[in-house]
Amino acid sequence: MRYSKGFTIIELLVAMLILLFVMLGFLAGLLNYMRFSLDARMKGAMDKLVKDWSGYLENVPYNATAIANASPSFDSGACDPTTNQCSFESIDSDGDGIPDFYDPYNGNNNNFWNNPTSTAPWLWVSPTSSAGLPNPPPTNYTVAERRQVYVGITVATLTQSGKEIGKAFGITSWYFSPTNRQYKYESTLLIKRKP
């Protein structure tokens, strides 16, 4: 038998296996990058929803019908300006660590990833209802196919000595992470003083 130049079948198989592992590693990295990029876009949309709704509610006059008639989701509350805490921010009826005033779900929020519009009854504005507000911002954004960011708003009446002095709006935006389906949210408190 004569020796001829070239590669043996074993050498070719080893080279193909090495190339396959390199390609699989590159593909896994690319898929992770795409998931984290989508997660970042969803977080950006979540920030935008909170800012849009905060700006919108700040600009709607207090005596506008939709604001004046907003039925409070929570009993009358009081806010302490020295601690920046409001009485309704301590209620957590479902025990998930998120005050109900900022919680769009009644139960463990991570369990709602497959039915995200099944929100709690205490929301004044929900992903499916803008509470009759005139020309409101959207209540959800579609970031990618089957990937949405939602907003929900709760209302509490602020009282002092038994008289209404304003309304507090709990604005919460959320989504379920494309990487692990975990509930992620951002909340803010907006207080409108009665004129």
From TrEMBL:
Superkingdom of origin organism: Bacteria
Membrane topology: Single-pass membrane protein
Cited Pfam families: N_methyl (PF07963)
TM region(s), chain numbering: 12-33
The protein, known as: Prepilin-type N-terminal cleavage/methylation domain-containing protein
PANTHER family documented for this protein: TYPE II SECRETION SYSTEM PROTEIN I-RELATED
Gene Ontology biological process: protein secretion by the type II secretion system
Compartment(s) of residence: Cell inner membrane
Source lineage: Bacteria, Pseudomonadati, Aquificota, Aquificia, Aquificales
Cellular component terms per the entry's GO annotation: plasma membrane; type II protein secretion system complex
Entries under InterPro entries matching the protein: N_methyl_site, T2SS_protein-GspI
Alphabetical keyword list: Cell inner membrane, Cell membrane, Membrane, Methylation, Transmembrane, Transmembrane helix
